[in-house]
Automatic annotation (TrEMBL):
Keyword set includes Chaperone: yes
SUPFAM superfamilies according to UniProt: Tubulin chaperone cofactor A
Protein name: Tubulin-specific chaperone A
Keywords: Chaperone, Cytoplasm, Cytoskeleton, Microtubule
The organism's place on the tree of life at top rank: Eukaryota
Subcellular location: Cytoplasm, Cytoskeleton
Cellular component terms per the entry's GO annotation: cytosol; microtubule
Subunit structure: Supercomplex made of cofactors A to E. Cofactors A and D function by capturing and stabilizing tubulin in a quasi-native conformation. Cofactor E binds to the cofactor D-tubulin complex; interaction with cofactor C then causes the release of tubulin polypeptides that are committed to the native state.
Organism per entry: Perilla frutescens var. hirtella (Perilla citriodora)
GO molecular function: beta-tubulin binding
Signal peptide residue numbers: none
Gene3D superfamilies in UniProt: 1.20.58.90
Length: 114
């Protein structure tokens, strides 16, 4: 049985994962720039290899985070549907859930994949 408390938890989960996703995407950009700078300056091959490993790990986190966000979005949608079927169609939590769903779907539509 879905409750407003469950809905709030799922909304918070989606928002947290969105922040994580943006953080990882920003980290990939930063590490890419750092790697390119090291290559341009002719850095030690060992240091360059280590930096490429760091960049690779950062890139691996983006798809993982996307999968978790997809799962969280699916849970949020399911909970919202259950609440709407049980008669809860108004309220700040319901509106917040709808806007969170819209925001997350826009992220999936507008973002590029690493």
């Amino acid at each position: 049985m879905a409750t407003l408390r469950n809905l709030k938890i799922k909304i918070s989960t989606c928002k947290r994962i969105v922040k994580e996703l943006h953080s990882y995407e920003k980290e990939v950009e930063t590490e890419s720039a750092k790697t390119a700078d090291m290559k341009a300056k002719g850095a030690d091959p060992y240091d360059l290899k280590q930096q490429e490993n760091v960049l690779g790990e950062s890139r691996m986190m983006v798809p993982d985070c996307r999968k978790r966000l997809e799962a969280a979005l699916s849970d949020l949608k399911g909970t919202l549907v259950q609440l709407e079927e049980s008669g809860e169609k108004e309220g700040s939590e319901i509106d917040d859930a709808r806007s969170t769903i819209t925001d997350v779907e826009q992220i999936f539509q507008s973002s590029d994949v690493y």
